[in-house]
Amino acid sequence: MEHPLVSVVVVCCNGLEITRQCLAGLFNQDYNPREIIVVDNGSQEDVQGMVTGGYPQVRFIRMERNLGFAGGYNRGIEAAHGKYIAIINNDAIASTQWLSSLIKVAEEDAKIGAVASVIRDGNRPKVLDSCGVGIALDGMSRQLMRGQAPPVLTAPKEVLVPSGCACLFRADALEAVGLFDESFFAYCEDTDLGLRLRWAGFKTVVAPGAQVTHHYSMTTGKYSLQKVFWVERNHLLVALKNFPPALLVILPFVTIWRYLVQLFAIITRSGDLIEFSAQSNSFQVVATIVKAYISFLALTPLMLRERRLLLSKRAISNFQMLRIILAHRMSMVEIIIGSK
Fold first, then answer.
1. pTM value?
2. What band does 262 get if pLDDT is binned at 50, 70 and 90?
3. Pairwise CA distance, residues 155 & 265, whole Å
4. Predicted local confidence at residue 336, as pLDDT
5. Which of 14, 51, 194, 236 lies deepest, with the highest CB count within 10 Å?
6. Strand boundaries in 54-202, DSSP class E
7. Within a 10 A sphere around the Cβ of 231, how many other Cβ atoms?
8. Which residues, including other chains, have CB under 8 Å from residue 138's CB and lie 6 or more apart?
9. Do 67 and 41 contact (CB within 8 A), yes or no?
């Protein structure tokens, strides 16, 4: 097998010790050639000293302020030289075969634009954090198989889009569709990019041997009002920018259904909302959602311009995209409460 150069990009904002563990995993890979790029998103901790002192081979890029997930990874990708671009959260630790498994799968089919990883939950290693990402009909996305036992995969498995926690992109595919949308800042930007790859005719598959352990949301916090803001706003941006017209028509009705499911989950103390509802009062949540909608409306003209540009270059029809989304659709109960 040919061994093309892969550029691995890690973005951090503080988290010095977990970033050190992430880099140790990357330097333990069984694949070469590789270049590793660390983007420091305005850390107050001495991440630069740790990286340059312990890993002088790493290319270090320092941002003076936090550009978010999208901006941080974009700066790293722009500096990359590889045929493939791998990204991994600084709170994720890759198994030795991670890169080789991703690239082996990508090399099998030029239509594979992204390769997803099998990501274990660092707090519960016997269950998954994700195995790709699925989507609901309002644009809300969720990690596939989260909380379930890891699958036994003997061949690549197609999924809708990859999780940005740890995945591989074909560099020429990113050149065709663009990088992460920096107006998202954090959350859902991987879904947006994955759907843009779909519009361009690329697909995403999971690589069976690409194992990663993710210490979930150590950087941003698993439950926070800030996360509610980003997710509530950005899933609407995903839909407006990427959904075929048939799904945009029903978007308001699906959104109402989601709120009803969320209310049911809170009343019955089901799913992840149990922890979040215990940390925030109803007024704070409602105010955050209103703020998210105001921000969404402010970004609507930009998203419509990006949608027109995206669709002017598309390789598939509205109907084909509709079929792809429906084939990988998750129910609202799966999105909000999870699956058993």
1. 0.94
2. confident
3. 36
4. 86
5. 194
6. 59-63, 84-89, 92-94, 112-121, 124-130, 133-135, 141-143, 157-159, 166-170
7. 16
8. 235, 236, 239, 251, 254, 255, 258, 332
9. yes
Could you tell me what percent of the chain has a pLDDT over 70? 93
Token pair for 338: 């999870």
Q: What is the pLDDT of residues 63-73, one digit of tens each?
A: 999 999 999 99
Instruction: Determine the Cα–Cα distance for residues 72 and 63; give it in Å rounded to an integer.
Output: 8
**Residues whose CB is less than 8 angstroms from the CB of residue 123 and which lie 6 or more positions away in sequence, other chains included:** 215, 216
3-state secondary structure of 336: helix
pLDDT at 103: 98
Q: How far apart are CA 102 and CA 206, in angstroms?
A: 8
Q: What is the band of 3 on the pLDDT scale with cuts at 50, 70, 90? A: very high
C-alpha 111/C-alpha 96 separation (Å) is 26
The two structure tokens encoding residue 81: 């030289």
**How many angstroms separate the Cα of 334 from the Cα of each of 149, 163, 216, 325, 337?**
16, 17, 19, 15, 5
Q: What is the 3-state secondary structure (H, E, C) of 183-208?
A: CCCCCCHHHHHHHHHHHCCCEEEEEE
Instruction: Say which residue the tokens 């659709």 belong to.
Output: 329
**What span, in angstroms and rounded, lies between the C-alpha atoms of 102 and 46?**
31
Q: How many residues appear in the chain?
A: 340
